[in-house]
Amino acid sequence: MPGSLLRVVTAGSVDDGKSTLVGRMLHDAKAVLADQLTAVEAASERRGYDGADLALLVDGLRAEREQGITIDVAYRYFATARRTFVLADTPGHVQYTRNTVTGASTADVAVILVDARNGVVDQTKRHAAVAALLRVEHVVLAVNKMDLVEYSEPVFDAIVGDFAAAAASLGLDTFTPIPVAALAGDNVVDRSTRMDWYAGPSLLEHLEQVEPTRSADVPARFPVQMVMRPRTPEHPDYRGYAGRVEAGRLRVGDPIVVLPSGHTSTVIGIDTPDGSMDEAAPGRSVIVRLADDVDISRGDLLAVDRDPRPAIVRSLTATVCWLTDRPLRVGDRFALRHATRDVPAIVDAVQSRLDIATLKHDQSDQLELNDIGTIRLRTAEPVTVDPYALNRSTGAFLLVDEDGGATVAAGMVASDA
Amino acid sequence: MTAVATRPVSTRSWLGDLEDEAIHILREVAGQFERPVLLFSGGKDSIVMLHLARKAFWPGRVPFPLMHVDTGHNFDEVIEFRDRHVAQLGVQLVVASVQESIDRGRIRETPGQSRNPLQTVTLLDAIAANRFDAVLGGARRDEEKARAKERVFSVRDDFGQWNPRNQRPELWDLYNGRHRPGEHVRVFPLSNWTELDVWAYIEQEGIEVPSIYYAHERPVFQRDGMLLAVTPWTQPRDGEVVTTESVRYRTVGDATCTGAIHSIAADVSAVIVETAAATISERGATRADDRASEAAMEDRKRQGYF
Q1: Distance in Å, alpha carbon of B19 to nearest chain A alpha carbon
Q2: Residues 6+ apart with CB under 8 A from B183
Q3: Distance (Å, rounded) from C-alpha A172 to C-alpha A131?
Q4: Structure ipTM
Q5: How confident is the model over B119-138, as pLDDT tens digits?
Q6: Which residue of B172, B179, B287 to mutate against A (max A Cβ within 10 Å)?
Q7: Which one of B2, B21, B178 makes the best mutation probe of the A interface by having the most chain A beta carbons within 10 Å?
Q8: pLDDT digits (tens, 9 = 90+) for A134-152
Q9: All domains of chain A, ordered by start, with CATH?
Q10: A101, B174: Cβ pair inside 8 Å?
Q11: Which domains does chain B have, with CATH numbers?
């Protein structure tokens, strides 16, 4: 049975062959079943295509199949002998960048696709910017359609050079370039025999090998989801705090500060229905018991009382991806959702907007759909945040429309917030 | 559920990751909503979801009721299991009856057609009548290509409709349950699970499921490429030959549109082996309701289906 779970996001421009790549990976990893393939073959034939269009495996919505494009994130699941994969396949259109942001937010690995004939285009930079901004741990540059450039090493090298330059200006230090031909299957699952000059792993081999760390080495963070006070005959006096370890390793004996109140205590128990444990790794859903009877409720954050501690702030600077049609303007009011806490927030300033073509920060007083920019927010109550660079979970927030409830922005707390 | 031996962190498998995620989602539902309900059909996915809910709220009780949308066309083994399971756990079960919707004139039954699509009206009526604001379902993204596009927290408008073109982006593990009055949110804690994961978890946790999931002898006949059981609602027509075969069910839904598969997998480990080796998808093998068109599931989901 496969081991750990790896979350992968794929991003590419229109017609880079991303759905074909994903379809190829599922097909060659034997994650496509006979009836699904038959359905794809029948649908391909109805559309007058030559052979099975593997993109139809992943483009599930009526509109996607009609237009032959991917509109929304599709999640795909497959397992190899080594591990289990959750793959978020995101659309390449400019207007659907919000879906790339969505897919990247939970990903351990981002696979950015380029067409070997076109090289690095604006969309590639946008995807690299999103991967860098959301701090996806591992980035793969998949140079696709190598078959259409005669499997040429110089073409590949030039694209890798261009991407490296763009990546460097985004603060993306390392990435893994892989030449592939998704239609023919070169270097997707099996290594290509047509590119002797490439000695590295196939895409799937690489995905089987990468090891995400998921903020295991920072002081633990534990947002409280609910207070557990069952008051049942078996557990008359039980009191614990249910939540998920969002960073670091939480251990029995750890000194804890409760935020925003500032009360301190010590972890005396970490419980699950399967038994108690001495230590809980990031991602574990557990119940924490403390030595002292402190006032704690949903929305509070338990943090290990050691530097770096979360900051308790009423205003903060953040990078946001703006996800809705109506522009973001100074004075706009939202609900800010951070960990398990909702607080009203007002936009005090729009400081800059990232120009994707130049990767420079421009002056701007508003953000449009799919813009990435830096803003200053003021909150009605204190929030307890970390820089996103330190910890994805306690550095991330949503801006939510207070009336309709729509999620309108993804926010990341700046390091100098 | 009493505490058993500690499982070391280092040996946790992908199933542990999926369990942690589902528990986090279930607790978010309890934290964000006033009146959640957990859809419980007695099928394996809803049984696993209920098991996860019990773990999520341990050492307390599951803080919301269950609801079964009952077409009246059930497998006896499943209803027996449902009632026994609910009684054992001491949880509240709301039964929303498709027959009652028919009797009250809310929906009209087409003779000879499955009641499966009629469930949508009954479901939406029950959600409105009980003022449920969060409806937990056991649907998984791997089941079907429209479901692959579904969010974990998925808003339904005041007509119960899903609009796949206008879904909220779902970032990190920040689930946004805000909604307007009259709207509700469908929540799918098993979104990232596959059929094989569900069975592996059933084995790991020693979860009981209805006997029809395991191989048994049953009189069946072939129709539209499906193996249908002989029931009061599915009778062989002229030329359809009834034979007794060793079969089991991969999905359990309305008896009129759920087919069996040939199988000799009599226990959970045999089912896992069989599932891992399967060349036909779970719904492809057994669900007539998805065969109507390429986008049959999307169309039903848009109208408010599970």
Answers
A1: 8
A2: B155, B156, B157, B158
A3: 8
A4: 0.90
A5: 888 899 999 999 999 999 99
A6: B172
A7: B178
A8: 999 999 999 999 999 999 9
A9: 5-209 (3.40.50.300), 221-304 (2.40.30.10), 311-413 (2.40.30.10)
A10: no
A11: 14-196+295-303 (3.40.50.620), 211-290 (no CATH)
